[in-house]
Amino acid sequence: MYKRILLKLSGESLMGNQGYGIDANRLQSYAQQIKQLADHGVQIGIVIGGGNIFRGLSGAQKGYDRVKGDQMGMLATIINSLALSSALETIGQKVRVMTSVRMEPIGEFYNKQKALRLFEKGNVVIIAGGTGNPYFTTDTASALRAIEIEAEIMFKGTRVDGIYTADPEKDPTAQKFDSITYDEILSKGLKIMDLTAITMCKENKMPIYVFDMDTEGNLMKVIQGEPIGTLVKP
Question: Pairing state of beta strands 176-177 and 163-164?
Fold first, then answer.
């Protein structure tokens, strides 16, 4: 069992089957799984994407200014973070939202030392707003925060059960990896995370475990070591 982890959640997964926004049942499922982990003493930092609401890059392709588009994406991650924090509070889990841009009283400005103190007091800490800068994805933000909070591993919860040779949702012949190195990801051109995030994790020897978060109970299974996803190792 790990002492401290960083959990990266997909904004798209929060949509459930709606196609947009936040599905209440999916949100509740995430909250229950996270609380179950916290009840076992695991310290949990969380970064959530915002793709269920707005993506800066896709917005730029439709005519939005890239910087403003990315700022809109940052705000989308904060909306998702507030929703998850509310769901956690409802089931009795202590949680705090910290933001990478000043937004009191919506969230407290992110500070590593304050985050570590909150962990020690039993709080789940959701770090919203990406890196706070344009041109960086929430993948990069999750890599950065995992390294900063000295997590033992980053868990990347997605809609698929690991890393494949191709997109399994589009290519039925895609083969799954049980484990893979950062160098192999780069050499094979696999689009698991953006290059900045991969490079940061590689240089700081931060392992990543990619798994299907949308199946109830999977988060506890990966924490307990069940091989249901793909381990990315240095």
Answer: antiparallel
Name the pTM for this structure: 0.93
**What's the number of domains the chain is made of?**
1
DSSP 116: H
Give the CATH number for residue 211.
3.40.1160.10
- Do residues 101 and 129 lie in contact, with contact meaning Cβ atoms separated by under 8 Å? yes
Whole domain around residue 97: which residue ranges?
A: 4-233
Alpha-carbon distance of 143 to 165, in angstroms, equals 22
Backbone angles phi, psi at 173, to 5 degrees: -90, 0
Q: pLDDT digits over 78-122, tens only? A: 999 999 999 999 999 999 999 999 999 999 999 999 999 999 999
Give the SS3 label for residue 30. Answer: helix
